[in-house]
Amino acid sequence: MTRYETRPIGRSHKTVVHPDLGEIVLDCDIMTIERADPHIVLNWAAPHTGAAEKLALLRDRVATAAQ
User: How far apart are alpha carbons 46 and 54 in whole angstroms?
Assistant: First the structure.
């Protein structure tokens, strides 16, 4: 089995603006895959923050809409 390592190449913050919830500031890590062109971009909200609460609201809305 071939194994490839991921390597972090950057960390930042991203702000997205939702029409109802306003600004949501997310942490962002960018990783590269060894010997490959694709990058993995991970966006998340730190637990117990306003951003995490807004993401929870969005998850609930999507779950409700899917039913």
Answer: 11
